[in-house]
Amino acid sequence: MIYLDNNATTRIDDAVLDAMLPFLKEEYGNASSLQHKLGRTAHQAIEKSRSSIANYFGASSKEIYFTSGATESINMVLRGIFERYQSIGKHIITTKSEHKAVLTTLEILTKKGAEITYLPLDNQGNINLSDLENSIRPETILVCLMQANNETGVIHPLAKIAEIISSKDVLLFSDTTQAIGKYAFDYAKSGIDICCFSAHKLHGPKGIGGLYIKRKTRPIQIEPLITGGKQENSLRGGTYNTPSIVGMGKAFELISLKYQEQTAELRNYFENRILQEIEDTAVHASHADRLCNTTNILFKHVKSAELMPKLINIAVSSGSACVSGDRDPSHVLTAMGIAAEDALCSLRFSLSKFITKEELDVAIEDIKSAVQKIRKDSPIWQLYKSGVL
Ligand code: PLP
Fold it and tell me: What does the record give as the reaction this protein catalyses (predicted)?
């Protein structure tokens, strides 16, 4: 299997698994049981992981919180901030290209009185910064903009966004789940207030993630989503998932700029060969600043639902894993003004440090022959080629 679906999830790194194993076997103490050695060992491992993650962000360990993943982190921030700040204002700014974890949660908050402004996107997936500035109102409490899109890889200029927001009394939350490990950025120095992460997007285990919540002179208020014990400063109760937290810390330690450059080179090679060798193909958001590992390609008049089953040796996706069972066109591509017909004929390829050029060569040949076969048998393609469509 040639794995080109790394934005959905990644293969666990061997070093991550090795770091986790002792905590699944002999080191099974509850990290909150500080009365005995087993508990203290687990506690120390968790704090080491917290410190590795803080290091990546340029943050202090006290600013890092553990959750079960980015979906929980997003729920905690959106619901928890709305709960605490709604007496000040109920207005939130975002875009329609956010992950469903954001969009679905905001829809639910709308029923509780939240007013949402969705900033328009251009055909490269970018927002207009003056639209953002003009949308901020006295009752705006939060701007929620992802750093990098999971379907197209488009990167929002977070530093500039933060600069606009810095003069206003508004919090900035960024879903940084996809950008972490794939894009160098100074989170601590930027004006972002909160961002989130998920270990399984960076060769760590599934079901673990967290938040970086900045400590400010006026502390950020978040109502807890999961109440219980006093874990995570009473912001998230529940027994620590020690093996996964340890694995996540290791995954952060393994992040390297070297892999990002290598992945970008391979992604460009893959993209260029597809464009050159298969007619009527196009890369979405090709003029935008994009993640090094992601490419979303339109194969004109070849439905992805028809193409994917023919690529039996390639793991690929037509969009976000959370919605890829849908027959609807991608909400991200349609938010960029891409026609539904073209959105339905687009595939997302997402690479990782484990992919090789040889694997990409095989994938390109497989894709080429599958596309050609589908088109050969397609009346729509014949009409299109003869200029009728
Ligand atoms: N945000 C983005 C941009 C994502 O790509 C994902 C994963 O698909 C999530 C949030 C949700 O992450 P998790 O699987 O950790 O809940």
Answer: (sulfur carrier)-H + L-cysteine = (sulfur carrier)-SH + L-alanine
